[in-house]
Write a structure and sequence with these properties.
Elements: E1 14-18, H1 22-34, E2 38-42, H2 45-54, E3 59-63, H3 71-85, E4 92-96, H4 104-110, E5 114-117, H5 122-132, H6 155-162, H7 165-191, H8 195-211, H9 218-231, H10 237-255
Parallel strand pairs: 1-2, 1-3, 3-4, 4-5
């Protein structure tokens, strides 16, 4: 069913979503379905460029931090392709859970037009699309992205954010399943002293935390990613153990919602 306030011209348009976290991809697809927009979902910048080579998209929403090809490299590749082929400029919206590492200026320098902050609710997404999708654009008042309240989310706050108890239940099931797999993979990477895999799994877990509004663990996880990349796993082993312990307690809390 199409969203009641969907502009008529959206029905002929298609959005490309580039997100490495499968739960986020599914949630973005659900949100775009609610808004009546056709969409295509891919997991990294390389897959996005392959999709763009096959068809035209009216707007791209891309996560900033991804394996294989990140959002910044993707944006630069799209802009270069447009220049080389003389294509019309497509709007690119950055999707990030951390404005410390993915600040707006860095997004602009890469060729992105705007940014959205996780956790992403339906209304901010719709407002951004109203600004940037080709066609009749609506001038909207400027507003800062929503900032999550301190503390852990409640079931009521998640239902308000995502609009439906059924969606919350489905999202939590998927997210917890993915988080368990990522946590197991993180433990394996730590034991193997594999800095690349440790940082990759931390990135996925931090993304899950940002999607639900933080819980105070997101900033710690983001800092650990930088520390692991700079100093390695062994140097940060104690911090990683404490982070995983606190993360396990948070995931247990979410299972009870």
């Amino acid at each position: 069913m199409r969203h009641a306030a969907t502009p008529a011209h959206w029905r002929q348009q298609c959005v490309l979503v580039v997100e490495d976290h499968c739960v986020f991809r599914a949630m973005m697809g659900w949100q775009l379905d609610k808004l009546g927009l056709s969409h295509h979902l891919v997991e990294n910048g390389s897959s996005a460029m392959a999709a763009i080579a096959c068809r035209r998209f009216d707007l791209v929403i891309s996560d900033c931090q991804m394996p294989v090809m990140d959002g910044y490299s993707l944006a630069r590749a799209i802009r270069q392709r447009e220049q080389d082929l003389g294509c019309e400029r497509v709007p690119i919206i950055a999707l990030t859970g951390n404005l410390v590492h993915d600040d707006p200026q860095r997004c602009r320098d890469a060729g992105m037009d705007a940014w959205l902050l996780k956790p992403l609710a339906l209304e901010p997404l719709r407002d951004m699309l109203m600004r940037w999708l080709p066609g009749e654009r609506v001038a909207l008042p400027s507003r800062s992205p929503g900032v999550s309240a301190p503390g852990w989310p409640t079931r009521a706050s998640l239902v308000e954010l995502f609009g439906s108890p059924q969606v919350v239940d489905q999202m939590l099931r998927s997210l917890l399943t993915e988080a368990l797999l990522d946590t197991q993979a993180l433990t394996h990477a730590r034991n193997a002293l594999d800095a690349r895999l440790t940082a990759e799994r931390l990135h996925r877990l931090v993304g899950s935390l940002a999607f639900l509004g933080g819980a105070g663990l997101e900033s710690r996880g983001s800092a650990l990613i930088s520390e692991v990349r700079t100093h390695g796993v062994a140097f940060n082993q104690q911090k990683l153990e404490v982070f995983q312990r606190d993360l396990a307690a948070y995931l247990d809390y979410l299972r009870e919602l």
